[in-house]
Amino acid sequence: MPTGNRYFPRLFLLEIIAVILVLLFLVPFYFVIVNSMKTFGELLANTANLPQSLYLENYARVWEIMKYPKAFVNSLAITVLSNLGLVLISSMAAYRMVRHPSKLNTILFSAFIAAMVIPFQSIMIPLVKVANLAGLMDSRLGLVVNYLGFGVSLNLFLYHGFIKSIPLEIEESARVDGTSSYGVFWRIVFPLLKPMTVTIILLNSLWIWNDFLLPSLILSSPDLRTIPLSTYSFFGQYTKQWDLALAALVLGVAPLVIFFFALQKHIIEGITAGSVKG
Hints:
Layout: H1 9-35, H2 40-45, H3 57-65, H4 68-99, H5 103-115, H6 124-133, H7 140-163, H8 168-176, H9 181-192, H10 194-210, H11 213-218, H12 227-232, H13 242-262, H14 264-277
């Protein structure tokens, strides 16, 4: 730790390492953005250089080929509905388990935690069979239901640890004033969960928005394709349209980047609160 104006060599070395790591993480973004504004020939000739001129035709072609507005709406609807369901179900379930401890709740919580270690690849085939029997195939709602099943374990775990840090006296005071159990949760507890809720929404959004495997199993109609599925159309069996694919990646990542910077303040609060209270 520095004392006064002293600057230790160890701290300077750590800062240098941190800068190098940041640059390493930014290199892929550089290649994606720079090469998305090149012609296919220029991209193959020199990948690392800046483009000789900004070739934005790639974005116009990608917009039409992948039907970006429709793919964007599909991804947005699936992400928003999944987040709403996961936040509501996980927060209420975690509150019940924390405030009403019992052997059954302990078993249920342990089962949810155990489900987190099951690899998705090991249940892909049974999942498709069950989804087909339940009428969830080729449906946005069916995909949302699957995301609820796969995401509730982690969300429940995070909410469970956060709720335990909320003083019980606050809820008891509200009950003395005549507030019902639902009123206590929605008016007192749920607003206090805001930092963790924002963090959970970000984690879920990163997962659901960028997910390729589960939508590829559930969705088959071209009109229901999400952005990752539409981007995959640029990779054929014999040709790979890298110039268009990179432009599609930029269009796909841009909404998440905007979303992250819009919620950056709340995300930092959630991470800080989770590290202290969890």
